[in-house]
Design brief:
heterodimer, A: 57% helix, disordered N terminus, B: mainly alpha, 11 helices, globular
Chain lengths: 622, 293
């Protein structure tokens, strides 16, 4: 990803730099928060306050981990309380029963928590999200029984007392020391998660949350992304548990009741599950404030229950989002700078966009065509595709292949079969010499097949540059540690990818949409963005499902021109499209599907005059 | 052998209790395609109102039972209006119902603790002879009653959903909400009545199991989790799944408690649940799409 395309004529539009400022605004959040929290720890004199504060900080850490699962991944990880308990118990048990010192014990506790997270992810891969949520909740409910089962290690229901407080280079950590330690841990946790959220992996998590198979068609293994989600969530929960176990010098199953899990959930929901600092804010609102204002452990259940209910119903995106919404109402968005597409001034050039996209490719020009032969597929006994054995449909590099046909003729099914989303009942698919008939979706994608969807599938909250940046950097193998620690390579990759994404956005005439999240884009912009996402992958064969629907006339011309220009450079396209003038204008070959079979194949000029096509597609009697 | 028979009999009895509770869950599930977390708390409220009406106020058993059903039916309707209706109007995914009903469940538990206190309240047997003999095995009459009620309820629901107009519509709503809505049925109102009926089932369950479990304000999540286990094991798609799963959970608890120790009862159930999810995720009674909920 060292390619850099800088055209001095097109200075980056102001919208894009505003988007960057917004991104930088959140950058200092974790640092500022940690500084504030530390300040309290240094000036506060009351030991009790420090102890309660440290407890709250560990809850915030565990809730931040839950926020990754719930907000980025859409996984209802109700078992987070059990993972938290696992980290605490393993740490405390190694200290009390096996005479370990705190630091190695805490390390082991974190490892055990992550392993439990892995274990929980196994049913998650097999059953629905609802089952997964309930199994996790069951596990929290079982904590007392599990603690009892291992009572020699855990002290059973009587609890486990720790022999001595942890030390740090010979200094015994008292309440203040533990508070500072917890604050630093929270700060580090927030920074790590911030890195993940801004990484391509974070983009893939959000795409997977909304549509699990979309990222597979971009060549990314769904299970890897899910595993990453569980690793991060349980890593933070394990660290939080390890610290928590030290605070009172004593732990028992009562520390990890169902209420704790519900507090974590309520905190994520109230703070805003898609935001970084939301879970911490939620713990502050739900746990810290009630401790200060009214000294009431006795009302906590009503507070948590009411909050969960209130948030799900009234504030589905949390207080932070609601506050932003309120702010927007007071200060509405400035009228958008009319994009060049709409005004027609300086119409973005297809040639330039194509050159930009072409230069992003890794240089190895693949030339394998995709051939699907004798495709047959039935849904519930109804045949969607019944192509004869000897008939093949090909997607060839350098060619634009147009797929026409009335509704229900099997166009989308054929596309789905080509990228592995639909398994063929009979027939074969080859890419070059390799057979991929039964290959997993992600594997087919990695052989160079990309696609867009009839309905654009974009996570609501992502900016165009974030999405495209994720796609640009994402074809490399996802490595957890790589994105977690944000070393120089990751940061550089991200910067390069974001810069390129800005250029693509500018060149595609989406300049007006650059600073708006996907949910606020026009349908044309969303469509264009979805197509661009497919084009920015490293695929050399692109399947486009109705790419022009919802586009303006300008946008259509730009799209068709870009496709032609990329085909001229050696990319292959299969396009399903209903705008006949546009589609026939850019096609090299046309295949007409009728009733799941190939009715006609030929040049666009032949097809235009073909009586059968006129009857089927346009309704003019032959 | 005698030990096994006793454990088996009490397992079937305990299973009857879970059947009665799980039937309510499966009813809501099949009519709204959502898991109502608060159903367990509704059953607990059933036991608590049974205590109030039957023990405190001295209303005869039949009258107390009917009153409990009415009150808990109202609570079911309230649950729908507060936790479901706003989400339905916004068109949110049904998985969110899990969270809003979880909030409702916590609120119900909190309210119960403040009204009835945290002590477990005893409810005497409704039947004149507290123990029934099957050969050498002695079984609590309340278990026998629960068994009879479980079977009777399952048959009643079967008849309701198979042969009556409203029963069929409710089943259709759970199967394909959009199609039924397009056919001109007010699915939101049907959802409301489904929750009211599930409240009746919860009230009946609370009344029947009261003498066995007593009225414990904290038992709601216990019911929710074990009912989920029962339904996941038996299959969400039919109330026969609730019956099979309920008995399976009851037997696992009773046999596990007898041979492994009482404190590990739920672990045994959890192990069985995981095993089923791994080898047969759609449940024993094989509703085809159970895992795709």
């Amino acid at each position: 990803m060292t390619v850099s395309v800088r055209d001095p004529e097109t200075a980056r539009p102001p919208e894009a730099s505003r988007a960057r400022r917004m991104a930088r605004g959140t950058l200092n959040g974790p640092v500022v928060l940690t500084a504030l929290v530390l300040l309290f720890g240094l000036i506060s004199g009351a030991q009790g306050d420090l102890l309660q504060g440290a407890v709250a900080l560990t809850y915030a850490l565990a809730a931040t981990g839950l926020g990754v699962a719930l907000g980025l991944g859409g996984e209802y990880l109700l078992g987070q309380g059990a993972i938290f308990a696992c980290g605490a118990y393993v740490t405390a048990s190694l200290q009390a029963v096996h005479s370990w010192t705190f630091w190695p014990a805490a390390g082991a506790g974190i490892v055990a928590a992550v392993l439990l997270g892995f274990l929980l992810s196994i049913p998650a891969l097999r059953v629905s999200r609802f089952y997964f949520a309930m199994v996790g909740f069951f596990l929290v409910y079982l904590i007392p029984e599990i603690v009892q089962l291992f009572s020699a290690q855990t002290g059973g229901s009587a609890g486990l007392a720790l022999p001595n407080a942890p030390t740090f280079f010979g200094i015994t950590l008292d309440n203040r020391g533990m508070y500072i330690f917890a604050a630093i841990a929270l700060g580090i946790g927030l920074l790590l998660i911030r890195n993940v959220r801004r990484s391509p992996l974070g983009v893939h998590m959000r795409r997977m949350r909304d549509h699990p198979f979309v990222i597979a068609t971009a060549g990314i293994d769904v299970w890897r992304v899910r595993l990453a989600i569980y690793t991060y969530s349980s890593l933070l929960a394990g660290l939080a548990g390890a610290i928590y176990s030290q605070l009172n010098g004593y732990i028992s199953p009562l520390d990890f009741s169902v209420d704790t899990t519900i507090l974590l959930f309520a905190a994520v929901l109230v703070g805003g599950r898609t935001t970084l600092l939301g879970p911490t804010l939620g713990v502050f609102l739900l746990y810290v404030i009630p401790q200060i204002v009214i000294n009431v452990a006795s009302y906590s259940d009503l507070i948590y229950g009411g909050t969960v209910l209130f948030c799900v119903i009234v504030l589905p995106e949390g207080v932070e989002d609601a506050a932003i919404g309120l702010y927007r109402r007071v200060r509405p968005h400035r009228p958008l700078p009319a994009s060049s597409v709409l005004t027609g001034h300086g119409e973005p050039s297809a040639e330039r966009l194509a050159e930009l996209l072409w230069q992003l490719r890794d240089g190895t020009t693949r030339t394998d065509p995709l051939v699907i032969r004798g495709a047959r597929k039935a849904f519930g006994g109804v045949a969607a595709l019944q192509i004869d054995d000897e008939v093949a449909v090909t997607v060839e590099p350098g060619q634009v292949h147009l797929l026409l046909g009335p509704n229900g003729s099997g166009k989308t099914t054929l596309l789905n079969a080509m990228c592995g989303l639909a398994r063929l009942d009979a027939g074969s698919i080859h890419i070059g010499d390799a057979e991929v008939t039964r290959a997993p979706i992600a594997k087919i994608a990695r052989r160079g097949v990309g696609r867009s969807f009839q309905t654009p599938r974009l996570p609501d909250e992502l900016l165009p540059r974030q999405l495209l940046g994720g796609m640009l950097a994402g074809m490399r193998r996802v490595s957890y540690l790589h994105w977690l620690t944000s070393d120089h390579v990751a940061a550089r990759t991200r910067r390069a990818a974001d810069g390129l994404a800005d250029e693509i956005v500018a060149a595609s005439g989406m300049g007006g949409g650059a600073d708006r999240p996907a949910i606020d884009l026009t349908s044309g912009e969303r469509r264009l963005l979805d197509v661009l996402a497919a084009l920015t992958s490293q695929a050399h064969l692109i399947l486009l499902d109705e790419p022009a629907s919802g586009l303006s006339a300008h946008e259509r011309r730009l799209l068709a021109g870009t496709i032609r220009a990329l085909a001229a450079r050696g990319m292959g396209f299969l396009v399903v499209e209903h705008d006949l003038d546009l589609a026939l204008g850019m096609a090299d070959t046309v295949t007409v599907l009728v009733g799941g079979t190939v009715a006609v194949t030929g040049q666009p000029s032949e097809i235009k005059e073909h009586p059968y096509l006129r009857e089927v597609l346009i309704g003019v009697p032959a | 052998m005698h030990e096994f028979l006793t454990a088996f009999a009490s397992g079937v009895g305990l299973g009857s209790i879970y059947c009665v509770v799980a039937l309510g869950y499966s009813f809501v599930y099949r009519t709204t395609a959502s898991f109502n977390f608060a159903q367990g708390q509704a059953v607990v409220l059933g036991t608590l109102f049974t205590y109030t009406f039957y023990v405190k106020l001295g209303i005869p058993a039949i009258g107390a039972g009917i009153a409990v059903c009415i009150v808990v039916a109202a609570i079911g309707g309230l649950t729908e209006r507060v936790a479901i209706w706003p989400l339905v109007r916004r068109g949110d995914e049904t998985l969110k119902w899990l969270m809003s009903t979880l909030g409702m469940a916590v609120l119900f538990t909190g309210a119960s603790l403040r009204i009835w206190g945290s002590d477990i309240l005893g409810i005497p047997n409704y039947l004149s002879s507290p123990v029934t003999h099957f050969g050498s095995v002695r079984v609590s009459s309340s278990y026998v009653l629960a068994f009879a009620v479980a079977v009777a309820l399952a048959i009643t629901i079967e008849i309701f959903q198979r042969f009556t107009f409203w029963g069929r519509i409710l089943r259709a709503v759970g199967d394909n909400r959009l199609a039924v809505e397009l056919a001109g049925v007010n699915v939101v109102r049907m959802g409301f009545w489904a929750f009211v009926l599930s409240g009746v089932l919860a009230g009946a369950a609370g009344f029947v199991i009261g003498p066995v479990t007593f009225a414990d304000p904290n038992a709601g999540f216990n019911f929710a989790i074990l009912s989920f286990a029962a339904l996941a094991i038996g299959g969400f798609q039919s109330h026969w799944g609730a019956l099979i799963g309920g008995f399976a959970v009851g037997l696992a608890e009773s046999l596990g408690g007898t041979y492994l120790g009482l404190q590990y009862q739920d672990l045994v159930v959890f192990g069985m649940l995981i095993l089923i999810l791994v080898i047969r995720p759609e449940g024993v009674m094989a509703g085809r799409q159970a895992r795709h909920v």
